[in-house]
Specification:
- The protein has ten helices and four strands, in the order βαβαββαααααααα.
- With 211 residues, it is of the alpha+beta class.
- The protein has a four-stranded mixed sheet with strand order 2-1-3-4, with helices on one face.
- The radius of gyration is 17 Å and the shape is globular.
- The protein binds glutathione.
- Glutathione binds next to α1, α3 and α6.
């Protein structure tokens, strides 16, 4: 498999974690987002949405991290990241989608570029925007993990899709200096996950293009 990735892309970070957890071998094809490599004709021929991550599984091209991870979970069920039991499945999906649908689309590169370029916001305003949407999601995530889940990870003691989504978002929150004091449970879970080899080797600073 080949994964089109950028070291700091949190959506690609999710897929790297999932591939590592499942023990799937893959080659990284680095796509430099800040220099616009994802908008070239060559890359658009691979993924017309011009987004990272994009997976090439022996010529089958897939994009959107959630779709890719669901595909991987179906093809390589060990360890299962999306539980089969309906309630557990809905809860894990809700946690992951809180990050995937409510934070990331508001804080990704093209949105921040638009805020800086078209709307002429300065860095302080952009950081405020960023932190606001992180807090909107981390609040309920903290409540869920502290009061409902009560386990080692986001959903009890088994690794799940929710953990795969939490760690890259926590990395981004730190990069943008978000205040994490209100989220002790999330910080504790993310610290435990950071020590897991599959998560550690997917981290941005361990990627070949992180120079
Ligand atoms: N919902 C998509 C989001 C993909 C996405 O926006 N990826 C970012 C990197 S984290 C990207 O390619 N950004 C390029 C841009 O914003 O121009 C997914 O989960 O794969």
């Amino acid at each position: 498999m080949r994964l089109y990735s950028f070291f700091r892309s949190s959506a690609a970070f999710r897929v790297r974690i999932a591939l590592n957890l499942k023990g799937v071998e893959y080659e990284i094809v680095a796509v430099n987002l800040p220099s616009g490599a994802h908008r070239t004709a060559d890359f658009l021929a691979v993924n017309p949405q011009a987004t990272i991550p994009t997976l090439d599984d022996d010529g089958t091209i897939l994009w959107q991290s959630l779709a890719i991870i669901e595909y991987l979970d179906a093809r390589f069920p060990e360890p299962l990241l999306i539980p089969r039991e309906p309630v557990a499945r809905a809860r894990v999906q809700a946690l992951a989608q809180l990050i995937a649908c409510e934070v990331h689309p508001l804080n990704n590169l093209r949105v921040l570029k638009y805020l800086r370029g078209e709307l002429k916001l300065d860095e302080a305003a952009v950081s405020k925007w960023y932190a606001h949407w992180v807090a909107e999601a981390f609040g309920p995530l903290e409540t869920f993990t502290a009061q409902w889940s009560g386990g080692r990870y986001c959903f009890g003691d088994a690794l799940s899709l929710a953990d795969v989504y939490l760690v890259p978002q926590m990395y981004n929150a730190r990069r943008f200096n978000c205040d994490l004091a209100p989220y002790p449970t999330l910080v504790r879970i993310a610290q435990a996950l950071d020590r897991e080899p599959a998560f550690a080797s997917a981290a941005p600073d361990r990627q070949p293009d992180a120079k």
